[in-house]
Amino acid sequence: MARATKNVRKSGRRHPFATVALVAVGLLVTGAAYAGFSQTSATAEIDLNSASTISQGEKLFGANCATCHGAGAQGTKDGPSLVGAGAASVNFQVGTGRMPLAFQGPQGMVKPKQFSEEQTLQMAAYVASLGPGPGLPETRYLKGDGDVAAGGELFRINCAMCHNVAAAGGALTQGKMAPKLTGVPATHIYEAMVTGPQNMPVFSDTNISPQEKADIISYLKYIEEKPSVGGLTLGSLGPVAEGLFVWIIGLGAVVALTVWVTAKSN
């Protein structure tokens, strides 16, 4: 009887690695929650007009950007002046990884960003302090709850000739391209409209009002989320892609069928 009781106790004993596993899972969950909280609250906690924020931004700028843009962001032969560029321009270029440039080319490409959101906003605060320029967009214009129909019309009139009516992007001249707009945060879409990065024109509030910009963002988020009711999108590149598909697949199938029938008849 004593031996049976001993065996029962032994079988109910916790595995030696169970505690370690529980601690590891707890650390992962806590770390993920903290990272998410700090990411969403960074903007709210940073005062772009604070002297300490501007000072930190100046240090970051001097260590990482002054080589091309000059010590006082006055510009050099390798980079334009950023005086008057505004906080929105810095937040867009650095926040999308376009800056710092990986190499000199027709245009800066999207890549993993090198700075945290806090550091990006600090540099944005510093550049904003050098001269008036476009500021960060207000949260109320980024919710995606605007007029989708009006936004679609505005997009087709002002943006579709470069970005494609389905926002799939397109090629431009001299090795440049208009990027696709699906999956792009609303903040960066708004900032691109007010700063006109690279080949893009500037859409000031007199050209397209803040609410109209919000409507465009709403349209882009709508076409990003809605399913395609017409079947395969083929990259949403229009009749060229569709014609090429028919030419290669359709004609290829006819040729393959002809070869098969001929081989059978022989």
What is the straight-line distance between the termini? 86 Å
Adjacency order of strands in the biggest sheet? 1-2
Globular, elongated, flat, extended or rod-shaped: what is the shape?
elongated
The CATH architecture category of the domain at 137-226 equals Orthogonal Bundle
Tally of separate helices? 11
| Helix share, percent | 55-70%
Residue windows where pLDDT falls under 50 for at least 5 positions: 34-42
Overall average residue pLDDT: 83
CATH structural class of the domain at 137-226: Mainly Alpha
Question: Which structural class matches the secondary elements?
Answer: mainly alpha
Report the CATH topology name of the domain at 137-226.
Cytochrome Bc1 Complex, Chain D, domain 2
Keywords for this entry:
56% helix, mainly alpha, 266 residues, 2 strands, Cytochrome Bc1 Complex, Chain D, domain 2
Topology summary:
Blueprint: H1 2-11, H2 18-45, H3 51-64, H4 66-69, H5 86-95, H6 117-130, H7 148-158, H8 160-163, E1 170-171, E2 177-178, H9 186-195, H10 210-225, H11 239-265
Antiparallel strand pairs: 1-2
Task: Give a short synopsis of this structure.
It is found in: Cell membrane. With about 270 residues, the protein is mostly helical.
Descriptive overview:
- Among the domains are: 45-133, Cytochrome Bc1 Complex, Chain D, domain 2 (Orthogonal Bundle); 137-226, Cytochrome c-like domain (Cytochrome Bc1 Complex, Chain D, domain 2), CATH 1.10.760.
- 56% of the residues lie in helices and 2% in strands.
- The chain has eleven helices and two strands; from the N terminus they run ααααααααββααα.
- A two-stranded antiparallel ribbon has the order 1-2.
